Amino acid sequence: MMIVNEKNTGTKIDYATNGNYLVLGADDDLMLNLSKYERETEKQIDITRDMDGMLLIGTGQTSYFVAQVTIPAKDGTFNIDRCTLDLWSIEVPINEEQAAPENEVA
């Protein structure tokens, strides 16, 4: 099981894991094969939600920061248990109380 951290209070996005896959959203809105993103250095994947409620990878023109996945540097066979999923409230826009990660522009 992934390491999961809730970064603030409020409702978080539904998520599940299946093997190397992380599935986000109540209707399986976004599925990521995390082993595909493993590199020689740590990799972070930002998950955001736009005004229409669609999940996106990256920040771009989004209103809500939903999650950040951290995949540690490659160390043998991929193991999802080494990955971290940080979750933010899906109810708070980035420009209000929600604090984006340090590497994000709010």
From TrEMBL:
Domain of life: Bacteria
The protein, known as: Uncharacterized protein
Natural source organism: Eubacterium barkeri (Clostridium barkeri)
